[in-house]
Amino acid sequence: MRIGTLDIKGEVSLGPMAGVTDRAFREICKSFDCGLMFTEMVSAKAFYYKDEKTKALMEIAEEERPVGLQIFGHEPEIMAHMVRELSEFNHDILDINMGCPAPKIVKNGDGSALMDNLRLIESIVTEVVKASNKPVSVKIRKGFTTTNAIEVAKVIEASGASLLSIHGRTRNQFYAGQADWNIIRDVKNTVSIPVIGNGDIFTLDDAIRMKEHTGVDGLMVARGIQGNPWLIREINAYFKDGTRLDPPTPEEKMEVALKQLDLMIKYKGSHRGIMEMRKHAAWYLKGIKGSSKIRDQLNRVNSREEIETLLYDFIRTLSVD
Ligand SMILES: Cc1cc2nc3c(=O)[nH]c(=O)nc-3n(C[C@H](O)[C@H](O)[C@H](O)COP(=O)(O)O)c2cc1C
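^ thats the input. predicted complex w/ flavin mononucleotide below
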């Protein structure tokens, strides 16, 4: 997929996930050849008020690129102001969040709340495109309460965006029910800019079906990559030459989990790194027979050594079985 002068390799992009797609996890996904990744969303207003935590979320390593920096907000001037101030950051794409369903975001008029306001969408995208020296993308949903992604997509394209990602659920659905891939197909058939389809890709076969059903230019996977970056490699290998790769062994999973743990500790310090790694470790264990036994224990570990011992002791029980 080409976005301006950017050449995006493979089919898969990593969907932005607040609290998940931090630098450590992105580095892991990059080692599985993820072609395009997005940061966690950051608030344009918090950046405007020079919030240091927000700046930390925006750090992108040279080796991870290309990366989309995702911002949220609803005030065109504040968002454009932020974008003009981004010269020290390493992003390749500036992504605008119009999909977040969380009540605390929506009540401020941010995220998916924008889907109901075409004039504001036009103004935000126009101002941000004018302010940005990088291509601008927008991530939308099927609609807020009703379906209006086609109208929204047309406005976004006409306002100068270079890429659109669409999650096939309305805001009211949050993450429940099934993603509607028909709306993704219809948006793809409406606009000429590249479209990335998103929602409910958990396996290679899901990816194949989404691609066939919608004809999108790229596939965005979010929850399906949690604890399973192998999915990126699996999908890319299949679309390159039809190869179906073997799934990872439990040992391989633990090795990558520990590599991620080390990165989390490196970037966030030991305490925070370990706390935040607990949920990732549980995701890596998902699907391994008997792993539910050690999930509770994982929530009580406080050091790297304890995590390593717990994981490897568990793996040893598998080979004895
Ligand atoms: C924990 C979590 C955090 C998320 N944070 C963001 C976010 O910051 N920005 C965004 O645009 N979407 C966010 N999403 C939505 C995902 O990017 C994606 O659209 C959604 O999960 C559907 O894709 P999936 O079925 O592949 O998970 C988040 C989803 C989850 C589960």
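The radius of gyration is 20 Å.
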